[in-house]
Amino acid sequence: MDPENKWPVSLPKLPESLWRGTTELPSFPRLAEDHVTGVAVVGGGITGITTAYLLADAGFKVTLLEGSELLTGTTGFTTAKITAQHGLIYSDLAKRFGEDKAMAYFRSNSESLEWIVETAEKLGISCGLEREDAYVYCNPGDKKTLKRLEDEFEAYRKLGLPGEWVDHVSLPMRIGGGIKLAGQARFHPLAYLKGLLEAFLDKGGSVYEHTTISRDVENEGGLTLFTEHGQHRIKCRHAVSASHYPFYDGGEMYFARLHADRAYCLAFEPETGYEGGMYLSVGEPRRSLRAVEWEGKRLVIAAGESHKAGQSGCTIKHYENLEVFAGELLGIRRIPYRWSTQDLITVDQVPYIGKISKDKEIYVATGFAKWGMTAGTLAARMIADQIQRKSSPYTELYDPSRFKANPGIKNLLVQNANVAKELITGKMEFTLKKIDDLGLDEGGIVRHDGKRVGAYRDSEGGVHLVDRTCTHMGCECEWNGSERSWDCPCHGSRYSYDGEVIEGPATLPLAKPDL
Fold it and tell me: How far is CA 161 from the centre of its chain?
């Protein structure tokens, strides 16, 4: 690609995920009154919908609550690999947690894979589910990564995992070595979850969209949750936080134990054939590949370019880098879709799943580290079992409070809590800031109606909201406090505080959400 070509004509002008672009989902009302239910599930992604389905199937009265619209979060923007091969993890898990826990991690994710396959078949859900072999590999000449890959394969051998060492793959590229894990899967996640949602509704479940739950919780005579601004109360016996970042912290300092990584995807039609398989490179730059069927053609999803959320500046460069990789590997006829998303990662790479504290019937599921198809399903199954007081062999491994026993870690978290909180509320974009937190003549990123939007409160107290997505190429604009403008870090477009174009290349104003 010509490095001077800043606006590649082959990239779609605005980001849209293939899953969102090919799925028509039902809409649901906003909660408009106080509500009573058995279980309140907060978050409408794979974890929330699966949890709601499982508990409704077990006879519970369940209400699913989503701050925005269902499947508009990370689940709608995944690569949708269903696998227990999560990069180079088993060698590390065996060292830090022990071989039994490492094996439990593999079993729990493998069981969740099989549960997805069996559930799709049982419910008759057509979601393009295909079995695929998964591969992690390193590039030739990368001796440091090859050593890590060899250590990982040794962990496979010790744990008895069904991995196979390979020196070649079917792709037109050389590798330094790789590990093949047979019998994994891929699917269309929204088609699958739409079917699961229909089954949940058939069992009497309730769904409310545009219903953001506040951080305030009462714990007398059962739980009471509150919608944003305390407009309505939700009485329940159990609550599940499946909302990516937990809606309720419970003193567990999740803001200090999680960080967000962003990654990028292209769905492209290759010029040469793609024989199948799901691939993940474990050196840098990290690259992921899998196939998907679309309009009678086979597309390939290329993903990668991870970075800490909010710490990249120009984001178009990440799509351009993936375009170069895809073009050099398979050639590109066209790119119908591009999208990005971010996911939370725990300090030890293992998700937090389970009861948030002994004295509250609140359960949390977060920190899936970009493996949410299996991890989100695992979380739903574990939490549904815990609410039904069923035992699980995986409770200790995924315990959200598992680091509380280590004083050194706890002290470190306490010392850095304020720094981490400031990072989250500012740079890392899954902000906790609300419109009411803005002072006069202050702008920034806030959470409104379950979404991150740009906001400015003028000197008279009036509030101006904008969708920060630049209308030129879809980058996220940043607030410029000195100029009171929204500035695009990709190609320099600038907008006034209320979204009007100040300078191009953008020609259209920013969209304006309802206040």
Answer: 27
Residues 6+ apart with CB under 8 A from 281: 136, 137, 138, 139, 287, 288, 304
User: pLDDT of 137-168, one tens digit each?
Assistant: 999 999 999 999 999 999 999 999 999 999 99
Q: What is the pTM of this model?
A: 0.86
Q: Report d(CA 474, CA 477) in Å as an integer.
A: 9
- What residue type is assigned to position 415 of the chain? Q
pLDDT digits (tens, 9 = 90+) for 308-319: 765 667 778 899
As to burial, measured by CB atoms within 10 angstroms (0-12 exposed, 13-18 middle, 19+ buried), residue 473 is: buried
Angle between helices 46-57 and 372-387 (to 10 degrees): 30
Amino acid making up residue 346: T
Q: What are phi and psi of 494, to 5 degrees?
A: -135, 145
User: Hey, what domains does the chain have and what are their CATH numbers?
Assistant: 425-503 (2.102.10.10)
Q: Which residue has the higher pLDDT, 450 or 24?
A: 24
Q: What are phi and psi of 52, to 5 degrees?
A: -60, -45
- Cα gap 350→331, rounded to integer Å: 36
Phi, psi of 472 (to 5 degrees): -85, -60
Phi, psi (5° rounding) for residue 37? -150, 170
- How do 494-496 and 501-503 pair as beta strands? antiparallel
Residues in the chain: 515
d(CA 124, CA 135): 29
Q: Tell me whether residue 366 is exposed, middle or buried, using C-beta atoms within 10 angstroms of its C-beta: 0 to 12, 13 to 18, 19 or more.
A: buried
Give kind and range of the element (H or E) at residue 445. Answer: strand 442-448
Query: CA angle, 309 as apex, 305 and 315 as ends, to 5°?
Result: 50
Question: Residue 476 contacts by C-beta under 8 Å, 6 or more apart in sequence?
Answer: 315, 429, 468, 469, 470, 489
| Separation of CA 503 from chain center | 33
Backbone angles phi, psi at 154, to 5 degrees: -65, -35
Helix (H) / strand (E) element for 231: namely none
DSSP class of residue 129 equals -
On whether the CB atoms of residues 245 and 343 are closer than 8 A, the answer is no
pLDDT tens for residues 57-86? 999 999 999 998 999 989 999 999 999 999
Quick count: other Cβ atoms within 10 Å of Cβ 204?
Answer: 11
- Name the 3-class secondary structure at 82: strand
Neighbours of 53 (CB within 10 A): 28
Radius of gyration of the chain (CA): 23
